[in-house]
Amino acid sequence: MQADPGLIGPLQYSQGWMWAGLALLTLVLGWYCFVFLSTRQRRSPSPPARFTPPSDLHDLKEAYLHRIDAVTADAAAGLLTARESHQELSLLVRRFARDATGVDAPRMTLAELHVHPLPGIAEAVRRIYPGEFGLEPLPPLTQSAEAARRAVRQWN
Predict the structure, then answer these.
(1) Same domain, residue pair 67 and 98
(2) CA pair distance 81, 78, nearest whole angstrom
(3) What pLDDT score does 51 carry?
(4) SS3 content of the chain, % helix, strand, coil (to 5)
(5) How many CB atoms sit inside 10 A of residue 97's CB?
(6) How many whole angstroms separate alpha carbon 5 and alpha carbon 62?
(7) Among 12, 60, 145, 153, which has the highest number of CB atoms less than 10 A from its own CB?
(8) Total structural domains in the chain?
(9) pLDDT score of 33 more than 80
(10) Which structural domain range is residue 65 located in?
(11) Is residue 2 part of a domain?
């Protein structure tokens, strides 16, 4: 039996195809590396400096009590509306808590203030809330100012 002349042995591939395949594989791996490295999150910044409590709490209290008095005087002079005055009082109480404790109270909701160990501040903000967000007629500014003063004075 003779070999069938219709059958031909396997052909050899050209060296160019091997190099083209390796180049394509390198491109795909390079693309994955680029995507991974360009989309990963950057390192987080260093943590903020530790809070150091104020050296003289009495002076801090006096400064905020003067600011509260200034808001009530501005409201009496007509420089601030009743709602703006209530909002300013709330912000002053929250800033006092931040300056006294380091807790970022100006950015907290009333519910978050109640969760934190700031009971006097949370209560003062709760009393000021109707003047900030309530419907007309707003509660008297004197009540809100007194709640703010009480929160600052009772802080220890």
Answers:
(1) yes
(2) 7
(3) 64
(4) 65, 0, 35
(5) 27
(6) 110
(7) 145
(8) 2
(9) yes
(10) 57-153
(11) no
